[in-house]
Structure formats: structure tokens, C-alpha cells
Amino acid sequence: MTTGQPSGFESITDRPQYYIDFLDERTSIPGEQMAKRIITELLDLRAGLAVLDVGSGTGTDTIEVAKAVGPAGRVVGLDKSPDMVAAARDRATAASLPVEFVQGDAHTLDFPDASFDRVRTERMLIHLPDPEAAVREMVRVTKPGGIVVASDIDAGTVFFNSMNKPLAEALTQRLSDGLAQGWMGRRQQRYLINAGLENVRVVPNVILNSVAFLRIVCTGLLTAMIADNTTTAPAVDAFWSELEQGEREGWLCTGVTCFTVSGTKPH
Ligand SMILES: C[S@@+](CC[C@H](N)C(=O)[O-])C[C@H]1O[C@@H](n2cnc3c(N)ncnc32)[C@H](O)[C@@H]1O
Questions:
Q1: Cβ–Cβ < 8 Å for 180, 127
Q2: For the domain that residue 180 is a member of, what is the CATH number?
């Protein structure tokens, strides 16, 4: 897999397979699986519900929702990227499930008011120019009494267990600044409340990452930091060696906080 920073999820047309591989790799991480379990629990899925997944990516989670609501339900995955929609359709066909994938923009959802019982979005708001507008749209298409769940990391909370504190702090800053909404995680509750939802609650979880995954996310940024003299190539080599040692010896303890929020649309 190519290495770099997958901050470009707002437009993945230049290298779609990289982003598809990135999402598949992410799904194998235990903390990521925990976030998905939290989302599912807060969604309170039942047979027959209509559910929208905004920014559905490869459709893996949307397909799981379709299994939960069954043939009497209706499940739609929406994504801005035609490549992601195509990948999701392939996976849904293979799973033989009644789920539909459509291309669209989270900022202006092409559904009537009150179309869905549940709306979920996972790791999409962080990539949007106007995430609060997207939250308002998700609330608009939710039926009164329905539930909206949004889940995202907060890149300002990325932590590296390195003794090179200046490098680790500079890298966290770069990661956060390289995303459209680096502090999305901490903003979500505010946006759900501002959009009029009730019973808004948050469930945080810490995601610990492997060095292989960190290399996918951080290599491009570290190369840029060497180029602009923020750090040096030997310092970066030592940084990776240290993290690999931590992984071998069991003290890596490097990751990020994810926040999953839910709210109910009032009647
Ligand atoms: C990090 S991926 C997350 C995919 C999936 N929810 C998951 O957790 O695996 C972000 C997704 O949001 C999509 N996306 C980005 N901007 C969007 C927009 N304005 N409207 C809809 N989808 C968008 C991207 O194409 C990508 O598939």
C-alpha cells in the first residue's frame, strides 16, 4: 500500500484504491471495531427500520445495518465518491442484501424531510468544509423520534509514545492541521445540540494503533517535516525504531480518542 496521509477523503478520485485499502486496514484495529460496536448500540437497530449511512465508503458498515433491519427495512448508503459507491455496490451484491448505494453530498441530502428512522455517519464529518450543515441535513431527513449517530476521531488528541516529545507534538499538530476538521471529535455534541436533537450523549473510546497503520498515516507528513527542516531524516528513523521497539516489547501505547455521539429528534 502507498503511504501518505488519508486526509484527502473529501475527494478520492486521484487514487481510490489507496483509500479503499486504508478503510479495510482500519477495520482490523480493535479500537476501531469498538467504535463500530458503540455506533451500532446507540443506533438501536430493529427489523423494518429505514436507515441512512452518510459517507458510507466501502459499504461494510451499511451492509451490517442491512443485516440488522432485514428485508422489511430500507437501507441507503450515500457517498460523494463514485469509486466508493461502486466498491460498496460490489460488496452488497456479493452479500445479496437489499441495500442501495447512491452518490450524493452530505451538505445537501437529496431526500425529503423525515425519510429515515436512523441516520449514521462514521469518520466523514472530519473531512467536510461545513460539518455543521451536514449535521443539520442529517437531522432534517430523520423522522421525529428517530436517532442520529455521528462518530469521529479528534486529531488533536493523537498521542505518540516517543521520547522525542518535540517531534511527537509537531506530528500531532500536522495531523490535525492537515484535516479539514482536525478537532471534529470534540465538536460533534455541540453540532447535534445546535441542530435541535434531544438526549444527546457521547461515548468516547481510545483507539490504539499498530506501527504498520501509523506508517500509512504519518509517512507523508514526516517526509514533509524533513523537507521543511522541522525535523531530520535520522530523527524520523529513530522515531520509527522506537515505536517498533515499543510494539515488540508491548509498550507502544500510541493512538487517538474517538467520540461517538447520538441524539433523538424531538416529536
Ligand atoms: C474515512 S471514509 C469513512 C467511510 C466509512 N464511513 C467508514 O467508516 O469506513 C470517509 C468517506 O466520506 C466520503 N465523503 C467525503 N466527503 C463527502 C461528502 N461531502 N458527502 C458524502 N460523502 C463524503 C468519502 O468519499 C469517504 O468514503
A1: yes
A2: 3.40.50.150
Task: Reply yes or no on whether the pLDDT at 111 is more than 70.
Answer: yes
Mean pLDDT is lowest, of 11-25, 61-75, 95-109, 150-164, for: 11-25
Residues 56-67 pLDDT 10s: 999 999 999 999
- Answer positive or negative: Cα dihedral of 16, 21, 26, 27: positive
Q: How far is the CA of 205 from the centre of ligand 1 (A)?
A: 21
Interstrand relation of 142-159 and 255-264 (parallel, antiparallel or unpaired): antiparallel
Separation of alpha carbons 85 and 69, rounded Å: 21
Task: Tell whether 203 is covered by a domain.
Answer: yes
Report CA-CA distances (Å) from 162 to 137, 171, 232, 245: 41, 11, 15, 11
Q: What is the pLDDT of residues 209-241, one digit of tens each?
A: 999 999 989 999 999 999 999 999 999 999 999
Domain assignment of residue 23, given as a range: 16-264
Quote the ligand 1 centre to 46 CA distance (angstroms): 25
Provide the whole-model pTM: 0.94
Instruction: Please give the distance, rounded to the nearest whole angstrom, from the Cα atom of residue 10 to the centre of ligand 1.
Output: 7
Give a yes or no: residue 10 inside a domain.
no
- CB of 23 closer than 6 A to ligand 1? yes
Q: Could you give the CA distance from residue 256 to residue 261 in angstroms, rounded to a whole number?
A: 16
188 Cα distance to chain centroid: 13
